[in-house]
Specification:
It contains 19 helices and 6 strands. By secondary structure, it is mainly alpha-helical. The protein has a two-stranded antiparallel ribbon. Strands 3-4 form a two-stranded antiparallel ribbon.
Length: about 475
């Protein structure tokens, strides 16, 4: 009898705790936007929303390449399973056409959709919570004036019990710091604007900050390096591995143009970011650069001195240098080290990367390469295997792929030689295995053209006349 009473008491306690947890996790559904309700958005507000959507890179996750803009359905691999992005066109049945501004604002601030369902933080509401009401209004205006697309959502592929969305209430309780940052009066207007963009809508830390075991960004290591779609998102704080230290000017140039003569071209997911930032005014680009430069801080005297030497050796002072011969034969400059990767480097890489043609169309000298100096070789493996496809219909950086010409062992020898010659870092370990896993898809990596915006049709979903 005592055992039975104990069991019933435990069961009752579990039910009470479950009911309490559900009560805490429960979110109400919000009113549906009336079908006949007219929403008139001034053109300048819609245009501002377009800029903000570009900052947030919304089209990247909410568009399947080759399909209609913002219609969702893109598979987003995560360490916890695959999540499919949602339709954010103004279709009333499958998109957000029935959402009021209040519902949109709640999704951005709290990660809860109109029906009261918790959103997975693959949608970075832990960053979007910083967005002001004014900017949320402009974003809403932009999205609600896109072409409606009927596209049913695809089910997520998550192991039990992660498909039970109320569990996200606990995640949010632990990791969501809701609301905007207060203005730092000790800093200037540009710095505060830059922090607002970088830490908020641009959600730079979603890629450039490491995550903990539960998938939340580790704010104690803000911008300390992370991972995005199989690429290493480099540290852009004091831990940066860039041979020439970044400063505000170089960051602003890179974000504006997608390349910098002493840092190379943007690629992978970052190419899409710099492509979309083209809609931002210069003052916002400069503000973002000012904030990131402040997070990086001043480099050590040793790094600064080395950077100055590299600037003198490779820099052009911002001048565009014309080179009639971009394939200068440098094979006679053999170093004769006997390293098995040296001959591969001379035949496959040296003519472009030591040929003297400047960025963005020439190959970056690997002495300047963050990829070669990084502790993880993933990015240089990816670029060497799959190259840099050209942008569509415009001049761009380009690099051939060597996946069909070099085997795993050859690729490992080549990269080991580059690491030894151009970097002061220790040798990379188990290169052949990492090359093989990248080649066969065990390590999923997204490869994009030089401008990175193949997911952004020219009309970006605008309503057709």
């Amino acid at each position: 009898m005592n055992a039975r009473r104990l069991l019933l008491s435990l069961l009752a306690l579990c039910l009470l705790l479950g009911a309490a947890a559900y009560a805490v996790a429960w979110q109400p559904s919000l009113a549906v936007l009336a079908e006949n309700e007219q929403q008139d958005f001034p053109p300048d507000v819609v245009a501002r929303g377009a800029q903000l959507a570009a900052v947030g890179n919304c089209i990247a996750c909410h568009t399947v390449p080759g399909e209609r803009a913002f219609a969702g359905g893109l598979a987003l691999p995560t360490p916890f399973g695959t999540i499919h992005s949602t339709n954010i066109t103004p279709d009333r049945e499958t998109g957000i056409g029935a959402w009021t501004q209040e519902a949109f604002r709640r999704a951005m601030r709290q990660g809860v959709d109109r029906e009261g369902n918790y959103l997975y933080p693959a949608f970075p509401y832990d960053h979007y919570t910083r967005v002001t009401d004014e900017d949320n209004h402009a974003l809403y205006a932009f999205l609600m004036t896109r072409q409606p697309v009927r596209a049913e959502g695809k089910p997520n592929d998550l192991p039990f019990p992660l498909g039970f969305r109320p569990l996200l209430a606990g995640w949010k309780l632990l990791f969501l710091e809701e609301g905007p940052h207060p203005v730092d009066e000790a800093r200037g207007e540009a710095w505060n604007r830059g922090r607002y963009l970088v830490e908020g809508l641009a959600h730079c830390g979603a890629c450039h900050t490491p995550r903990n075991a539960l998938g939340a960004v580790d704010r104690s290591r803000n911008l300390g390096g992370g991972e995005a779609e199989g690429w290493q998102a480099y540290a852009i704080n004091a831990d940066s591995q860039a041979p020439v230290p970044w400063d505000e000017d170089s960051l602003a140039f890179y974000l504006r143009n997608g390349w910098h003569e002493l840092h190379g071209v943007s690629r992978g997911p970052m190419a899409e970011v710099t492509g979309n930032l083209g809609l931002l005014p210069d003052e916002d680009i400069r503000a973002m650069a000012a904030y990131v430069a402040s997070v990086m801080g001043e480099p050590s005297a040793e790094r600064r001195e080395r950077g100055e030497r590299l600037k003198e050796r490779f820099g052009t002072g911002g001048r565009l240098v014309q080179a009639s011969d971009s394939q200068t034969d440098v094979s006679g400059q053999a170093r004769g080290t006997g390293h098995p990767g040296e001959a591969l480097y001379r035949s496959a890489c040296a003519n472009c990367h030591e040929g003297g043609r400047p960025q963005p169309y020439g190959g970056l000298d690997f002495t300047l390469s963050t990829a070669v100096n990084a502790p993880d070789p993933q990015n240089i493996i990816t670029v060497t295997l799959f190259g840099l496809p050209p942008a569509d219909g415009e001049a761009s950086a380009i690099m051939p792929a060597f996946a069909n010409t070099l085997g795993d062992a050859q690729m490992a020898d080549l990269l080991a030689y580059m690491r030894e010659r151009f970097s002061g870092g220790p040798p990379w370990q188990d290169l052949a295995r990492q090359v093989r896993e990248t080649r066969d898809g065990t390590r999923h990596v997204a490869v994009r053209p030089a401008d990175g915006i193949e997911r952004a049709p020219r009309n970006v979903g605008a309503k057709e006349d």
